[in-house]
Design a protein that fits this description.
Elements lengths: L1 E2 L6 E3 L9 E10 L2 E14 L3 E3 L12 E10 L5 E11 L2 E4 L12 E6 L3 E2 L7 E7 L3 E8 L5 E10 L5 E5 L7 E11 L2 E11 L1
Parallel strand pairs: 10-16
Antiparallel strand pairs: 1-2, 2-5, 3-4, 3-6, 6-7, 7-8, 9-11, 11-14, 12-13, 12-15, 15-16
Length: 202
């Protein structure tokens, strides 16, 4: 997804490998420094090719500056639903892509990894939720860094069982505004892989 410039729209270039239609839901997450939660602002169903969202909600009103995400869903041949989430930021009336806060489900060792939202903190000083689940048991370490790559929180490495969702919390209090990267490192059979997600402290 990419912003279309001054007209305040977003272009979605869809490439479904199965040919199944795609449903695109767009959710608002914040207005200024106020976190709104998952508020559905627009839905597009049955899409099989690229299209442009004009940046207006279901009532035809231009959406405000803040953070949003688009959820793309399509049915796979095995009947399961494949879901992708794309983070969007709107500033000065223009949309632009932001770093991911949600990892696509996988059949690798790290099955699921997500942050509660692409923003945290704000007027209510909301904490950031971190959740992950493994397909195979492995050793996991989670590290949080600020925009200067400085470590602000390190969750101790530990052995984690497969099939159970693990939840962590990053308090917003004491953290300055800006992007924070949550790095999850999985080590199994001597091999390590790190996946990074990002959320902005408002």
């Amino acid at each position: 997804a990419r912003g279309t410039g001054r007209d305040g729209g977003v272009r979605f270039d869809l490439r479904s490998t199965t040919g199944s239609p795609v449903t695109v839901d767009i959710f608002g997450q914040s207005k200024g420094r106020r976190i709104t939660g998952e508020k559905l602002v627009r839905r597009f169903e049955g899409r099989k090719s690229g299209f442009t969202w004009n940046g207006r909600d279901r009532a035809g009103r231009r959406v405000s500056n803040g953070f949003y995400f688009a959820r793309l869903r399509t049915k796979m041949p095995n009947g399961q639903v494949d879901t992708v989430r794309l983070t969007l930021g709107r500033s000065d009336g223009r949309f632009g892509p932001r770093r991911a806060f949600f990892k696509r489900d996988s059949c690798t060792t790290l099955a699921k990894f997500k942050l509660s939202r692409p923003v945290f903190g704000g007027r209510g000083t909301r904490a950031l939720g971190i959740a992950y689940r493994l397909n195979q048991a492995a050793r996991v370490e989670v590290t949080v860094t600020n925009r200067f790559a400085r470590v602000v929180r390190r969750f101790s490495a530990r052995q984690v069982a497969a099939g159970r969702t693990q939840r962590l919390t990053l308090p917003a209090r004491g953290l300055k505004r800006g992007d924070y990267r949550v790095k999850l490192s999985v080590t199994r059979e001597g091999r390590s892989k790190t996946t990074t997600l990002t959320s902005a402290r408002l």
